[in-house]
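Typical record was shown:
=====
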Amino acid sequence: MSEDRPMSGKEPKVAEKRIPAGLKRGMASLGTKNDSKAERSTPEGPRGQGARGWTEKLLTRTTSGAVYTIVILACLFAGVMPTCAIVTAMAWLCCSEFFRMVRMSGRMPNDILGLAAAIAFPVAAVMPFAGAMRLVLVLLLICCAIWYVATPRSNIADVALTAFAPIYTSLLFSCIVLIRRSDPTWIGGLLTLAAMGCIWVSDATAYFVGTKFGRHKLAPKISPNKSVEGFWGGLVGCVAVWVLVWALGLWNISLPLAVLIGACSGVISVVGDLFESRIKRGVGVKDSGDIMPGHGGLLDRSDSMLFGGMVIYVILHLGGVI
């Protein structure tokens, strides 16, 4: 027989009476607090899980972005050919992600022609003879026309996408190679870093300003997470980079030209971002790929760079800097 079981059949009520009422209330309150800490939840899960998730996402995004940046920096300052090599690889990956998305919408582009052109454009940018990139463009169009004539199943939309994909992902990316080629020394690497870095700074400041202060949607039907406040934050960051470039005095860049480059590239880079977002929304995908944790695909990471780098190259060229 257990020691704590009473001898008689009646259960004593003394034990319960010996516990003061105040102590009972305190124990009940303590139990409630412990339970609330363990089980209290929000629509996203236990309290604090949303904050932890955001922190982990930010850490993943920052880590993959840092690796990406280090590889780019190493190639930029190693010389023109390493820059060409990394841009070629990135252009090829971006083009393949673009083709993957359009195939999800039922289109059937010619991947072989498009990906070959994606490799050829950056390589042509370092060729010693003028007009190499224009030659690649002409050959691409001719090959697309021959393919269209020789393939009854293809339609004009497939031909258009086959030609557009390398132009969008590779020809525009080749502007980074052209900027780097303008000066083979480390100064050219620094100028190319400014061209790419201003887009990175713009993306980063837009992300943090939008996360902290974003209230007004910039394009809710295309990219619901982008805000007007984030747009202005990114624009200020982009202009600040080019004002710093002007302050260094290493190139023939006036302050008005620096502000013009920063403002134009900041605005057009957002257009490039929204352009790619519209493509993804049209085919029903969140990311173009998954090669970069926290960012999605490489095209997701480079969409701003494609248009922004092109604008920077054009203004630098027309302004007599390169």
The first helix runs from residue 14 to 18.
